[in-house]
Amino acid sequence: MSSTAPRTHIASRTAVFNESVIREMTRLAHLYGAMNLAQGYPDFPAPAFIKQAAIDAINDDINQYAITWGSPRLRQAIADKSKRFYGLDLDPDREITVTCGATEAMMCALLATIEPGDEVIVFEPFYENYVPDAAMSGANLVFVTLHAPEFRFDPDELRRAFSGRTRAVIVNTPNNPSGKVFTREELAQVAALCQEFDCLCITDEIYEHILYDGREHIPMATLPGMYDRTITISGLSKTFSVTGWRLGYVLAKPELSNAVRKVHDFLTVGAPAPLQEAAAVAMEQAASYYPELHELYDAKRTALLTALRESGFDCHTPEGAYYIMAGFRGLGFKGDDTAFAHHLIERVGVAPVPGSSFYRTGAEGADFVRFTFSKSAETLAEAARRLSRM
Ligand code: GLN
What we know:
- This protein is an alpha/beta fold.
- The protein has two domains: 12-46 and 289-388, Aspartate Aminotransferase, domain 1 (Alpha-Beta Complex), CATH 3.90.1150; 48-286, Aspartate Aminotransferase, domain 2 (3-Layer(aba) Sandwich), CATH 3.40.640.
- 39% of the residues lie in helices and 14% in strands.
- It has twelve helices and 13 strands.
- The strands form three sheets. A seven-stranded mixed beta sheet has the order 2-8-7-6-5-3-4, with helices on both faces. A four-stranded antiparallel beta sheet has the order 9-10-13-12.
- The model has no long low-confidence stretch (mean pLDDT 96).
- The site of glutamine has 7 residues, from helix 1.
């Protein structure tokens, strides 16, 4: 070994992705005392009923491993909700798996279904995790752009992305970062291609309960012929403002669930037991909570949209989720989106995420920064004050 360079001891699969840009912006926000509208997590309390349920669960000694694929009570609550909202008939014993967040769910889904070299189609702008997930599972990503301002895909472009090498397509609706909610017609176009090319659809529906203007969330699994080829991913983080509890889940037919469960078992054993119990209690009681959640986020969306537009940003109104892709070219800034994000953090005191971090092939992201409005009224008001002084 003496004549060659020393080994780095770093696996090549880590070389194709970098540290999270979203979390980097959070760090910069702290460093410069900027309002953190970069990372999408609530800075306000979780509902009292879910917090109390967690306290009760710990006091009731639910502190050891839950069943690997999720506590029976939580899987039943997920089945009941899926039936009530979407008419899905799921067997909690064979078709529902609880994971450590939707993040683990996506990793398990890919590791369970993708052979190295398989192609996976992703719409861009995309949630940043899909790139490292693909690298770690050996998938080659193929990107299809959702074109601004309305974030629509071109059906011909989508068709050209599919081939005999395609194993799966990832659909994230409501979409982070664009706020797009896929229509039934758009989902049907994706579904038809999945069927024609015999591939899976892996969905990320973590924002399923955060929708605006009467829009409806349509799970891909409810489209004709799609249940058997869809892996549905969601979780509790966004709906119940508990992103740090790490509770996600996977819905899929038994054969697919079985493969996902095997990966999940050896990655993490299971999600935190007392928090699963609390999640079950919360979901059982949540009927009146979902409308409150809509109202809460509707007011926050209005507050940030108004502030951004009054400050000269060009924003498409989000249809779901809690992000705004804001075009900043009208402000006369000459540099790129990363320079603009740094400028906002250091000079204005508001932290966004550079748009290009959500794109790989398209150049459209360079004209945008992403803001989240999953913040308290006070945080949003202070951010608005700072933006207005720009
Ligand atoms: N989903 C959140 C966002 O997009 C948090 C992501 C993260 O922590 N990397 O901002």
